[in-house]
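Provenance

Sequences were taken from public entries as deposited. Structures were produced by running a predictor on each sequence independently, with no templates supplied. The record for Metal ABC transporter permease from Filobacillus milosensis is shown for reference.
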Amino acid sequence: MLEALLKFELLRNTFYTGLLVGLIAPLLGTFIVVRRQSMIADGLSHVTLAGLAFGLFMQKKYTLLMFTPFHTGIAFSIIGALIIENLRDVYKAFQEIAIPIILSMGVGLSIVFIALADGINTNIFSYLFGSVAAVSRSDLYLIITISLFVLIMIFALYQKLFALSFDEEFAKVSGIQAKLIHFIFILMTALVISASIRIVGVLLVSALMTLPVATSMRVAKSFKQTIIYSIIYGEIAVILGLISGYYFEIPPGGTIVIVSSLLLGLTLLYNKVKFKVALKKDDHYAA
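Predicted structure for Metal ABC transporter permease:
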């Protein structure tokens, strides 16, 4: 694969994008899991799919050269994120209902635009499951910009995001502008999801934001450790997933999720064995 990376620019773009996505998706996913909003990735990914399908439809019917489906996907994802925040304000006592509402809207729009674009084709398939050669140079530059924005925001707002994630009421009393921070957070989530779709695809993007975090939570001893381990597990999954996808000539989204699932399974098994060994030691000392 190293020879292919040196030879083909598309493969290099995909590999670089994978490294960036393996960093920002678990990073933001840690806050999402702690906030108990794991399903938000599914909701926004389906809205992003609607944007991608809309972009393909517009390209087919009107030959829009300035905007690619990737751009319209990002735009739809941001709009979906704003709608979720507004719905959370409308349904204050049932805020979680905002996610299935936006997910349903995304699925409905996706079906309509896919049909208008003459059904499932190779482009839609790559957006659904990811591709090892789907990232252009302009896409890579945009994903780099998104990654830098997310990293800067996380670094600048870390303490506020931490406070809002664990105790929102106390954070508000402390003077934190919760509404503004929520807006920035949901915007970052939309951007990360739309960027990750190029690698893992619409149907699997939520796995990259949650599985590394779930694995990390079984071994980490602090929130910062959870973030660090999540990024490590995410990068391992992306790198091994891309390599496997290349050699087996299959979409990398599936292989990335399989690697993430194996890492989680091995971690759970290790903890179980470790717990049994500890019990045996306690029984031995008690005897």
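Residues 2-281 form a domain with the ABC transporter involved in vitamin B12 uptake, BtuC fold (CATH 1.10.3470.10).
The radius of gyration is 20 Å.
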